[in-house]
Amino acid sequence: MLARRQAELDQVAADCKAVGGEAHVYPLDLGDEQAVEAAAAKIKAELGAPDVIVASAGSGRWLFAEETPLAEATEIMNATYFSAFYTARAFMPDMLARGSGRVVIVGSPASYAVWPGATAYTAARWALRGLAESLKTDLRGTGIGVTLITPGRVSSAYFDHNPGVLDRLPGLGRTIPTLTPDQVAARLLKAIERGETEVVFPWIMWFYAFVNRFTPRLVSWLIWRTGYRRQSQQINAKRAKAQRAPRNS
Hints:
Oligomer: single chain
Strand order of the largest sheet: 3-4-5-6
Radius of gyration: 21 Å
Order of helices and strands: EHEHEHEHEHHEHHH
Largest sheet: 4 strands, parallel
Distance between the termini: 70 Å
CATH architecture: 3-Layer(aba) Sandwich
Strand content: 5-15%
CATH class: Alpha Beta
Shape: globular
Structural class: alpha/beta
CATH topology: Rossmann fold
């Protein structure tokens, strides 16, 4: 397991061992190319090339472009897209030489339908989905599979670390049930066992993604219509509503 925080890694490793599993932890910043290369070399020396890579890192607040600090935009892309790219790239030569393996990328609903007020977050998730689709084509016929799995909202620590983001969730998104991390893990394992290439769940999220393929303008309008507005847009909308309201004589 690779992540930045040693304490959390140690806790997950302890949980795995408590149920009879085995876990090895490597604390590092996955957005740091050199750190990933060094960790990959250590892992290959100690354990060999992995059979499955699961890229699920990500960060970032939901902000309009003009609200987003440049350093934060860079960090969002590093933590989300480059972390997956660096990790897959570091192990790919060994997996290709072996002729087997699977790369699993955990995506976001934002890579299927864009909602307002989350510019850098959305751009990074589209880049991540693009990576998954590119790897599917690049690795066809090599024996290495690629799975893009996209859950709806998950009750993870992300929302604790980014307070206020749910205020920008469109009304359409509020109809999607919240998943637990255990539910996502179980579905991820099933996708690996089945060799699935694309998984979108729960079913209502899959339905929205399916409809979006055929009527993207309609879905985009619904998300925009029920989505977050800038403060100036909120004020203008209230003024327009007040002007349309009938006046008492």
